[in-house]
């Protein structure tokens, strides 16, 4: 049954990515929504799940520290990429293509998150079918958003549609690989919770410091702000009613 759910996540994520490619002329609005969606996933999905999985083994202060580490790690990586790109621009008249490295890293982060989604589905079904379906519904509902976010990370960093499609395929396959991996090995719930805490920090930085500012470039802030708030509300509603 978990494999059927994994297939459904592939379809859901892929459709979300195709939606972003099709409407790339409205990218600033989609980026605004994506920013809210990423922040919503961090606050309403990853963080509560991390606290729940580690409640018996680690205190809340340690979880908060891991979130900060995740945030700082992405901050440092982003600054390194940005400095490299700006340095290249000093020597060329055209924009440096190395800015796409940041987009690839962001897409990679989302793909790893999707892998952990699938991993979580596999573990949940091992515990009980009821828990498995609860996790599966939550993953399916924000899988569409994951596809949008992955494509946006590439397009906004000067990547082309071909590159965006490649990363979309990787992100769409990731949850299925996560489910399959649980057939061969397993990790403790507390360890998975610690990993999710780090990804909470990564996603908070990705949404607040990358997607939100980018969505406002050369566009009025009113509608992009509305879309960001809408993204947060939609993800909260989806996760709240799914669980």
TrEMBL record:
One of its GO terms (cellular component) is plasma membrane. GO terms for molecular function: zinc ion transmembrane transporter activity. The keyword Membrane applies. It is found in: Cell membrane. It is a multi-pass membrane protein. It comes from the Bacteria. Its main location: membrane. Keywords: Cell membrane, Membrane, Transmembrane, Transmembrane helix, Zinc. It holds the Pfam family Zip. The chain crosses the membrane at residues 30-48, 60-77, 123-144, 165-185, 191-208, 220-242. Belongs to the ZIP transporter (TC 2.A.5) family. This is ZIP Zinc transporter family protein.
